[in-house]
Amino acid sequence: MKRIKLFPKNKLEYLRLLKFGEEIVEICEEIDVKPIVYGSLAYFAHTQDSNVKINDIDFLVPKKSYKKIMKILDEKKIKYNWDPKWPILQVFKGKLLIELDPNDDWPKKVVKSASDFEFDWLRLKVISLDLIKKSYDIGFAKSSTPEKYVRKVDGLKKL
User: Fold this and answer.
1) Phi and psi based region of residue 18 (left: phi greater than 0; alpha: psi -120 to 50; beta: remaining)
2) Cα–Cα distance between 95 and 17 in angstroms, integer?
3) How many CA atoms lie within 13 A of 149 on its CB side?
4) What is the pLDDT of residues 92-139, one digit of tens each?
5) Which of 19, 21, 48, 111 has a C-alpha 20 to 30 A away from that of 13?
6) Residue ranges of domains in the chain
7) Model pTM score
């Protein structure tokens, strides 16, 4: 297991996000779902770039688990937003955001190649370096705002 000892630029928000992320992981585990981190937190895990800001946490989960997750969110009175026309289930706690994205279209090796990381006290599975590089390359190529991806694409190329 790789321990992340650094903090991103927005340390306090990051710590609050981790705490909220822990709640969401516990909900997922109640229904035997093992969320996998990707996005900015995965970028941070692999690069340990302390100049990055973590504004949300992105987890990959099976889309078929959404109904069970939403039922538990309702029971716990945790706010969320989901439109069946849009694949992402957004979960909110004040200004904090966790996004659950379907892993259904990702290659099967996502689960097999995910690595264990420890973020302060929280242990999470994180998408592999190879897959996070591909993810940001695709995002850069397809985005209407590719400038959002430049820094991370460049940071990942150095690894």
Assistant:
1) alpha
2) 10
3) 18
4) 999 999 999 999 888 777 778 899 999 999 999 999 999 999 888 888
5) 111
6) 2-157
7) 0.92
